[in-house]
Amino acid sequence: MSEPTIVCVLGMHRSGTSLVARVLNVLGVDLGPEEHLMRPSAANPAGHWESRPIKDINDEILERLGGSWGEPPRFAPGWERSPELAESRRQARDLIKADFSGRELWGFKDPRTCLTAPFWQRIVGPMRYVICLRNPLDVAASARARKEDTLPFEQGVELWLTYVRAALAASAGHPRHLVFYEDLMTDPEPVIRELAHFIGRDLGDAAEAEARAAIKVAVAESLWHHRTAVPNVVDAPRLPFHVKAFYLALRQFVPGAESVGAEALDLLGAYAADAGDQQAKLVAARVERKQAREQARIFKRQRVALEQRLSEQKAELQRVAEESDEQQRLRKRQEAELERLANERDEVAEEYDEELRLRRRLETELEASRREASLLQGSTAREEPEAGAAPAPPRPDYDSLVSDLRARVADLIPSGATVLVAGKGDGALLRLQGSRGWHFPMAADGSYAGFHPAGDTAAIAQLEALRVRGADHLLLPRTTLWWLDHYPGLRRHLEDRYTPLLADEQCAIYRLSPEPRTQASAPMATLKRAIASLRIRSGREPSILDWGSELGIADHLPEVAVFAPPDDEAVLPYLDGTVDVVVLPANALARMAEARRVAASAVISVDPGSPERADLEWLGGDAAGWGEDVSVTMVPEGEATAWQPTLRAFAETVGDGFAGELSVVGDPAALGASEAATAGGPPVRPIEVASGASLARRARAAAESSDRGLQVFVTAPAVPLPDWLPSILALFAPNRDAGVVGARTLSRFGALEEAGGILAADGTRERRGEGDANPDRPEYCFVKRVDFCSPPLLATRRDVFERLGGFDRGPLAPGDALVDFSLRAGQAGAPVYYQPQARIVAMENGDR
């Protein structure tokens, strides 16, 4: 068998390497398995055509050498043979063998290879090099305009010079072909033919047409922003002269559609003359600097003399200070006396303030008692003011609002219901006809909390905690309707899960019962199920193309990358399989084939006028279920009935499409309570153990009776917020190294209890963010590697659980057992991660 032809594409970032790689791919160059190619991104929506494993190896090499793609390290002679890179060399050989063995014509592209080419030359052997060039002015401008990893203009120019020089040095003595990005974009035909000739392939009509189509996508205004002619590059004041000269020499070496011309040469000559003037100025500056150094020596001698005089003056001041010691001691005694008097004054003021607060509270309680007595007597007349007191101001509008709200509640809410009322603590709004009213938000003693929730998560956590305790409706009077705008996350939570009974300018009323499973085929539920499946399988957030669905997907799913086509054409300006999910109207039958072409995983068709149903089509296999390798296990401890709300909540939130198992481990009493709690919901597998069995024994029994690869243990009463499980499972995707994953734990009052645990140097344990009233602060909202996670929830791989012996570490309390297991997992090379998207509300055993 003849030796294969191997093509390596080199070039600075933003220089057209992706486009050239795509053209080579069309000409027959195998770029590796499709699953290893990087997906399109915001920086390159037409596709990178780049092997992610090769990019990862390059990043690892640069990091080990103390640099990165944007800040290249210093390369010592012979660095590619360093023992430190032995593992990288092994990975590279295995990758080349697995992806390209037996291929006659193959290649790869990653701009970082300009820097790491000596490493790959030892691994791959003889290669042909295609070097992509673009003028430095456009490269620097494009790098600065990137949304991610943006570079200052000067750094972009310096990187251009570094990458191009490195590419030329690495390819010296080897077959190489230079391609200018500007030539490929303006007159692609000769460039394509030269590339075909360079790699030894005949250019057929089909291949040429496909290559030109790929270039046509890149030429679109959305992808080719920066276009600077050669004279303008030479005339650019921000480019250093040596960079202009180097670029002009390259441009002359490779004749193409963009000619250098006499104008550019004249400009370069003018700049060369100016460079001579600058050299003369530099010499003059050196003379001035020498004179300045001499002047500095004179100043130094003067400074020494001044310091001597200053020392003498300090000695004189010290003598004067010693003479006034008695005056200082007297002043200190006076200050101490003044401080004592001030403290006495503050104590008296505090006592007065406390008495004033007590009196006001007593007055408030007295007023509430009076109103309550008036209601019990059935009186509708206003209370008479106290003797000598001013009459209360009339409130006709507000009293009318209260009366109207009571009538609406009586009409819409069944008698005996429990209604959460966001009424700013007004007790009058709690007195509803036939229903019981609770303050929202509520303090521990049942009174109004006295403040609004700090953010969306705090509001949702309190809502779900109160729902578990028995609240079945929510009332937002006119005075708090602004919440629906101020807390968009709360609004989406209510719209997605619960039924709105009324919404007008006076109030909004929701029935707090989860969406029936019969609505699981609704468009948003269908899309969420697809996202959950993709998130778990890939370990990343999927991309969604909304092609005129009119569902407002971006508003409902702000955490997901949702975008729309730039126009309403029937052909999408994207490459095949570059978007995970495409959503389009069901009546757009002519566009269905185009949607299937662009979608990599699924197509969802919806009827905007019928919100009850959507059709989900998986491409390349059935992925309707998710979480099939997962076991979510409740480990009740204490009174069995206290766990019933937890069981109901977890059964509700695993969601439609969950293919894993939900199980409960405990004695017969606990299992009986769980069966009653989840009646009518998803099946729950009972695991019976003896009464009084330890947490370690119960958890081990659950793991031994399950064949699932991922185990999620719930060891304390809790309420999960929606979509908690897919985000946890995403961290266990094959391309992630997680061994243990914990959640963002909240109190039932909405405060943060833990955003991952930290083990201090002295061995103390810190629950990150504990007690923070705003759990949505940015520092709590990203995935982070931590030392441990605490109850009520811990997720781990089955092999890690078995290798560490489960929770068996002596007589530890349940909370300490989970922390201890996390610490041991991290020490054993199974990293522990905090997942903020998994939000869990910890409930006390008495919260039912």
Describe the structure.
The chain is globular and about 90 Å long. Helix 2 (52-64) packs antiparallel against helix 3 (86-100) and helix 15 (456-468) runs parallel beside helix 17. The strands form 5 sheets. Strands 16, 17, 18, 19, 20, 21, 22, 25, 26 and 27 form a 10-stranded mixed beta sheet that branches. It has a 6-stranded mixed beta sheet with strand order 6-7-5-8-10-9, with helices on both faces. It contains 26 helices and 27 strands. Residues 371-387 have low confidence and may be disordered. The protein has 848 residues and is α/β, with parallel strands linked by helices.
Summarize the structure.
The chain is an alpha/beta fold and 848 residues long. Helices cover 44% and strands 16% of the residues.
Largest sheet: 10 strands, mixed
Shape: globular
The whole-angstrom Rg is 36 Å
Q: How much helix is in the residues?
A: 40-55%
Structure class? alpha/beta
Low-confidence stretches: 371-387
Q: Based on DSSP secondary structure assignment, what is the total number of beta strands?
A: 27
Beta-strand content estimate: 15-25%
Mean pLDDT: 82
Please give the alpha-carbon distance between the first and last residues: 74 Å
Q: Count of helical segments?
A: 26
